[in-house]
Amino acid sequence: MRKIIVCTFLSLDGVMQAPGGPDEDAESGFEHGGWQKPVSDDEVGAAIAGWYEPADAMLLGRKTYDIFAAYWPTADPGNPFTERMNGMRKYVASRTLTSLEWENSTLLEGDAADAVRELKASDGGDINVVGSGDLAQTLMRNDLVDEYRLTIHPVIIGTGKRLFADGAVPTGLEPVSVSTTKSGTVVGVYRPTGKPSYDSY
Questions:
Q1: Bacterial bifunctional deaminase-reductase C-terminal domain location, by residue (predicted)?
Q2: At what angle do helices 80-87 and 42-52 cross, to 10 degrees?
């Protein structure tokens, strides 16, 4: 059984929208694109690189696919991620796309949750869900996430799309590893354990 792993950059208040640049995702008038780099460091980069080592595929929503497909095919070949991102198998969940131009990309057919269940049952390594907030919500609602790998950065954005948005399914999490980088970013790996427990003091 393959693992579905949600890999996401978050602000301290949980915003995941447009960490990479001002023009990455301005939906709903978002004005804070590019918030991650100023609060990142080389330890964060090393952690992210490590997330891709056991993975042999990415699972992307349409918006993240469009952003990546416009950037990575012509990205600097000296960037250590360029070859990895272009060479890795990409599975794309979209109701609007009919074809994919980026190499090694496959469009999932039918219901996204059903298609991901089939992927999980297929042969292969881990599958990383990168960005793709809407798709991540679908996966969480359908109990398809095996692990969360999160970088939680020391900045408050205030508005924007959140990974754990209103209506998220209540879920207990087991910490697999948690560390803090020199910039104050928390790098956390967590596994869902089912419904949370409740108690009182």
A1: 2-186
A2: 30
Burial of 89 (0-12, 13-18, 19+ CB in 10 A): middle
Q: Provide φ and ψ at 66, rounded to 5°.
A: -60, -40
What is the pTM (predicted TM-score) of this model? 0.93
pLDDT tens digits along 18-72: 998 898 898 999 999 999 999 999 999 999 989 888 899 999 999 999 999 999 9
